[in-house]
Design a protein that fits this description.
By secondary structure, this protein is of the alpha/beta class. It has 8 helices and 8 strands. The chain is elongated.
Amino acid sequence: MKSCMTKPARLILFVCSTLLFQAASAHGAEDLPRGDQSNLLRVGDLSGKEALVFEGNTTFSKEKILQGLMWRTEYHVAAHPAAPLAGYLAELERMLTAGYENAGFPEVTINAMADAKAQRVIIKIKEGPRYRCGEVLLSGVKRMTNEVVRKKIAETLVGVKRDTTLQTNLASAIWVRNDPAPFDNSSADRLQSMVGEALQSLNYYQPKVHVRIVPDPARGLADLRVEIADEGIRGTIQEIEVSGLRTNSRQQVLEFLQLKPGNAVSWRPHSVGVKPALAIGPILSTRGWS
């Protein structure tokens, strides 16, 4: 199967990996333990993707796994012929583990071993069970464990459709019902951040929230449990400044927008911007509106 990367793209990745490796070598070459000969072995001829042999990969083909690896700059740095072999094997295990976790496999184990005589790198994979996204469940502060909050969190997490291959960008973690559940660390951080953004849109600032994915083997699904320990700070309007008025009074504008000091701060799109300007048209002078 031909690589989906163009020759210029492969060349750029190779040049970048060479420069990055040279920089890393210059910085850390003197730190190698003298008595540890394994750290002195280099990748050499094992750097090519042809040398990679996968065992136990029942869900993803070798081609699909390689496709995901080829787009990772850190793979090309670790696979440089002059790079330490031990580091290359460790990096393969790390990247493949993260990829499988992101694709719904929380119990995956990866073991990469070099067979110098056969010029192969044997990667043994135990995938374990796969889980798909289940429900978003709330617990904690009573006034926040309601359907309005739950729905806002769920809608925030499905903002962008996630690719389900190993080529997925780990920073785009979302939660879509029946999609593979992302168990990798990067996705966990992103899920935590997105839950915070959802609560902020409901005027809850700096809440104490714990987000965790809980697999249910019986259903083959994993639920996203959001525990709200503290609602944080509620934003309120203290002062309102209105400028540029010609036809309408300040009070007319505030009454139309239903704004007054003491109201909760709302970041909803209809609170400010173009829509209110168009909606307020009927109470404005029609001069210049043709």
